[in-house]
Design a protein that fits this description.
Elements: H1 3-14, H2 16-22, E1 28-30, H3 39-47, E2 51-55, H4 61-74, E3 80-84, H5 90-99, E4 104-108, H6 114-122, E5 126-130, H7 134-143, E6 147-151, E7 157-158, H8 164-171, E8 180-183, H9 189-197, E9 202-205, H10 207-210, H11 219-227, E10 233-235, E11 248-251, H12 254-271, H13 277-286, H14 291-296, H15 321-345
Parallel strand pairs: 1-2, 1-9, 2-3, 3-4, 4-5, 5-6, 6-8, 8-9
Antiparallel strand pairs: 7-11, 10-11
Helix pairs in contact: 1-15, 3-4, 4-5, 9-15, 12-13
The protein binds flavin mononucleotide.
């Protein structure tokens, strides 16, 4: 057997728990991205052998139902739905997923209750959660979560403070009962292999798919991705500890600069007694309302929120999803084969 065939078999073995859990050919999830992860991208990822995930975001249950049905018309393969736990109609959203036999529900944006996890599982879907630290990961598994995603601060969108390099070392050696998928900053198959070797069962990527051919993101949004380097994908800055800002990673632009000015002006007005603390906080929070849609759908990449991870620097062209996944797999296989060569050469 050739070295490449051996390497491919090694890869299949490494991510088998992830593939079995997801029901996909390769253990690569297309991370849910609000406005981007809809029927076209999600079905393209699942049809290419990966695992697409619909971003429910602020959708109503009726709107989510429409999206699930439309996605099912485009793929017979499994895909997931990402629900934000603070959505006011979370239970109804779960019921919509269950009614339409969605196989996996990703519960994002906070620690889900055991009741909501039970609702997902009793309905026959598998429940996936996010672990921002080892203790929380263990707690989620106790609550009934069946797989974890650990997302490093390199990722696009809302991020925690810890890099994937560190989270992986903190969590992977200690969580063995459920599959763990790594996310954040991944743009090549070699990097995915390194985490599989540390015990991960698969990987979740967002940024690379946002710029794919099948992504409905505006041409300007994709062009901004092609132009950007890793260092352009920065997290939002908080000016005053009295006024918390949730860190979001995206491309620096007039909007992000305007956000600093807006915070400074609002804080000054608060200090001079012109606005209450609550109203000042609300004004800061509302600055970005609708901003992701403005960038993704309308193409206003100067004033909108161009959420992107540091892996944006590796996005060099707009490619079909099937090609992106095939390249990631090729790179992973090659990395394993080369590693074998290095080990034998030094023996
Ligand atoms: C434009 C954009 C929007 C995102 N929206 C969401 C979201 O609505 N819910 C969520 O759980 N994660 C969201 N994410 C995070 C992705 O699901 C994924 O975990 C992340 O992109 C992985 O890191 P990477 O961008 O370095 O590949 C978003 C990411 C991007 C780039």
């Amino acid at each position: 057997m050739s070295a490449m065939t051996d390497a491919r078999e090694t890869l299949n073995r490494l991510w088998k728990p992830g593939c079995d859990f997801l029901g996909s050919e390769v253990a690569i999830l297309g991370g849910a991205m609000s406005w981007v992860s809809e029927r076209n991208l999600v079905s393209a990822i699942s049809n290419a052998g990966g695992f697409g995930v619909i971003a429910c975001g602020a959708m109503t249950p009726e709107r989510l139902e429409e999206e699930i049905v439309a996605t099912q018309a485009l793929t017979k393969r499994p895909f997931g739905v990402n629900l934000i736990t603070m959505h006011p109609e979370l239970e109804r959203l779960v019921d919509v997923c269950v009614a339409h036999k969605v196989s996996h529900v990703v519960l994002a944006g906070g620690v889900p209750t055991s009741a909501i996890i039970k609702r997902v599982r009793d309905g026959g879907a598998r429940a996936i959660g996010f672990a921002p630290a080892l203790a929380l990961g263990k707690r989620l598994v106790k609550l009934g979560i069946e797989a974890l995603i650990i997302e490093g601060s390199e990722a696009g969108g809302h991020v925690g403070p810890v890099s994937l390099t560190v989270l992986a070392q903190e969590i992977l050696p200690h969580i063995k009962d459920v599959p763990v998928f790594v996310a954040g900053g991944l743009g090549r198959g070699d990097a995915i292999v390194s985490y599989l070797e540390q015990g991960a069962s698969g990987a979740q990527l967002g940024t690379i798919f946002a710029a794919s051919e099948e992504s409905i993101a505006h041409e300007n949004f994709k062009k901004a991705f092609l132009r950007a380097n890793a260092r352009d994908a920065v997290t939002s800055v908080q000016l005053d500890e009295q006024f918390p800002v949730i860190p979001v990673r995206g491309l620096a632009n007039a909007g992000s600069r305007g956000f600093l000015k807006h915070q400074a002006e609002t804080i000054r007005t608060f200090q001079s007694g012109g606005v209450s603390k609550e109203d000042a906080q609300l004004s800061i929070e509302h600055f970005w309302a609708g901003a992701l849609r403005r960038a993704v759908i309308e193409g206003d990449v100067e004033n909108g929120s161009v959420m992107a991870g540091q892996s944006v620097g590796m996005v060099k062209e707009v490619r079909p999803v099937s090609e992106i996944i095939a390249t990631l797999v090729e790179q992973a296989v090659e990395a394993i084969a080369k590693r074998e060569d290095r080990v034998h050469a030094s023996a």
